[in-house]
Each structure stands twice: as structure tokens, then as C-alpha cells.
């Protein structure tokens, strides 16, 4: 039993932690598990600019879940820079998507021939330049995490929270750091759901569990509310970008709300799907790597479904509701339409790489995305955003303006629909003297930002611009 009241005991514990941090050699990691240290990676010649760690956190579930992470210390000041968790979406996609193709510490040069081993170079726009960052494969069964199990929005949030509590036990020196959650696509569900779990946990905090110093979250081209982000936003984007005709757009508008027993409207949806089938909907100006053959556009494209629920898909004579779509579409295992995953697949399935990053042999094959038996059980995230921002958490919501998968139109609408006072009216923001996009700031520390010319995975297309707004926002500076 402590001789000090709980309040003083907590303060004394925090003071001791800060003293140890100040005394630690070079202000670097002192308690991280040595067995998790990544000493070198095949394909990279040189010394890492900061320390890398990877491995598993075992969750006390039945059966046990083993969630894989790759952690990179900040290249600037790991003891003072924030810790950021990165989550890719899907659901079912590995966060090595972000590591390899977006904002990881390396640029991967593709081999001359298919299957050639990639060459790695330092990435000048890595987010680890300015923050500590954790790439987490979640839910269980995704990437290097195992075993494959059915999951849901709510279960993923619970498991990710449990992961963080155990992770901060392994790396206690980072508990005082500001902590942020970030992610894209279906992580538009993951992120606020996880933030809500952490917030709930912080209200029940006790000294036996690590403290998660959550300050806010960042979401890129994220799913939020299927009625706002869904078919209306998709159609408005396609029409505004001259991808469907004015006539077809008007026909589709007249058919909104007709879900069954209307042959005319069913043909309208089929026409739209056929017209747009050959496009890379993740970045409409880019080529389609896994292209669609013309004879497949009336069948397999519709059966695969669009990239997420409530798009104009017809099954059994009706357009399904968002909940029906969300609960049914994640049972397939296919390549992401139009996305080139060759480099990551070649690299992360190499036995030398897997040994270097401590990947378990339980995972026989790494895939960028896997089919999930997954339930979207939380519905709209609008109430979550409202609750979190009203409690003082910072929120940055950004959109690549050439993404047709989760168009900026819906995101702009739901951020405005929170009803907050506009603090900074719509204006351009700049990188290197050039307009990089536009933003609007609201009360309660909410910012909506577009990135000009970027697709769904924004840092893939505009890495310099992304590092600029990321660093500025984390430092609470004007973008």
C-alpha cells in the first residue's frame, strides 16, 4: 500500500519518469525490448537515421491475437516529438501500405524485371523525420498479424486499444509524449472509434495501466457516414470531373431512393458502372494496374463491388442499404483494383526481410489486403467526431481531391455538418510558394484540408506537401 495519496503518487511517478528520460544516454530509447530492434534491412545500404523496432504484441483474447507493429523513432527528437499510430484501411489492408508506398523511411525502387528484389533509399519525406511512428497491422489476420479471425469496427477498436496499452508497457519512455492516431480510407472508422476507446479508458485510468497521452487524430480520405460519403458524393464527383454525362447524372439523381423493382433505374446504375469501370477510382488521373477487361464490366466488376459500401451496385434487383453492403462485401480476397502492390509483395515475402523484422512463420504469406469476415457495426462516425472534438481533441481531416473512392465532396459536407463556427474561411495553403490545396478551419480545433492533384493514398502522390502539413499541424502551427 502506498504511503502517498493517489494524486501525489501519480505525480511522483511522472516526475521520476521525466528524470530518467533526462539522464538516458543521448535521450534515446532505454527500455525498448532489445529483441525487437531492427538492425538492418535487405536492400538498404547504410545506417538507419533513427532506431527501428518491430515485433508482436500478444492480446489476452481467446484465441490469443498477435498484432504486428513496426516502430520508428523520430529522426529529429524522439523524446519530445509526438508518437503517431498509423492505420491503413480496407478493412483488411496492411499498414505496410503506408510504410512502403506513402510515408515510410525508405523509397522502394522497383526492379527491372517482375520479381526482382527492390532497392531501398532514404525517403526525404518520411513522417519519421518529425515524429515517432507506429505502423500497426490490424485487425488480427491482416498483414503479419495472426490468426485470421472474424472482426468488426467495434472489436477492432477494442483490440487496438489493448495493443496500445501493452505497447506503452514495452516502451514506457514514450508515455509522456503527445500521442495521435492517424490513418486513411476505412481508418476513417478505425481512428475515431479507437480515439473514443482511449478517451473512455482515460476516464477510468489507474496507476496499474499505462497512460496514453492522446491529443488528437488525423484522417485522410476516410469513410465517415455512408449516407453523406456514399452514392450522392460519388455521383457529384464523377459529374463534376466530366466522367459521366449531364444526361446520365440527371437520370441517376431521379433514381436516388429507388432500391427495388425499377428496371429503368437498374439500367441507369449499370450504365454508370460500365462507363466508370476502366478508371482508377483511387486516383482518376493515374493508370489502372489491375485493369478491367471490357467483357467483365457488366458482371465481375459489379460482383466485386465498388471500393466501399453503398455505391450504385445492384444485386437481386435492388441497391443494398449501407449496412447490408458493409456486412457483405468483405468476404472476398482479390487484388485492389488498379493498385500496383508488386514491390511490397516481393519485398515482404522475402525470407531475409521477414527474419530482419521478426515476422512470425505462422504467417505463411504477406498480402497487402486480405478478405475479411467483417461487420461494420458502428454506423456513422459523425457523432464520434462531434464528441471527440467537443472534448478538446484536435482533428485534421484531409482529402486528395482526385480520389473518386472517398470523394472530398462528402468529407467537406460532413465536416461542415458538425455545425462549428468557421474560424478560418476557405483559403489556399502553400508548399514552396505554390498552391498545394485548400483548407477551412472550424472551432474546436477541427480542420478540413484538400491536397491538390492527390489520389486516395495522398502521400503516395504528394509526399512533400503531406510532410509540410503533417509537421505544421503536429507542432500546432498554421498550415
From TrEMBL:
<feature type="signal peptide">
    <location>
        <begin position="1"/>
        <end position="31"/>
    </location>
</feature>
<dbReference type="GO" id="GO:0004185">
    <property type="term" value="F:serine-type carboxypeptidase activity"/>
</dbReference>
<keyword id="KW-0121">Carboxypeptidase</keyword>
<keyword id="KW-1015">Disulfide bond</keyword>
<dbReference type="GO" id="GO:0019748">
    <property type="term" value="P:secondary metabolic process"/>
</dbReference>
<protein>
    <submittedName>
        <fullName>OLC1v1005052C1</fullName>
    </submittedName>
</protein>
<dbReference type="InterPro" id="IPR001563">
    <property type="entry name" value="Peptidase_S10"/>
</dbReference>
<comment type="similarity">
    <text>Belongs to the peptidase S10 family.</text>
</comment>
<dbReference type="InterPro" id="IPR029058">
    <property type="entry name" value="AB_hydrolase_fold"/>
</dbReference>
<keyword id="KW-0325">Glycoprotein</keyword>
<dbReference type="Pfam" id="PF00450">
    <property type="entry name" value="Peptidase_S10"/>
</dbReference>
<keyword id="KW-0645">Protease</keyword>
<keyword id="KW-0732">Signal</keyword>
<dbReference type="GO" id="GO:0006508">
    <property type="term" value="P:proteolysis"/>
</dbReference>
<dbReference type="GO" id="GO:0016747">
    <property type="term" value="F:acyltransferase activity, transferring groups other than amino-acyl groups"/>
</dbReference>
<keyword id="KW-0378">Hydrolase</keyword>
<dbReference type="InterPro" id="IPR033124">
    <property type="entry name" value="Ser_caboxypep_his_AS"/>
</dbReference>
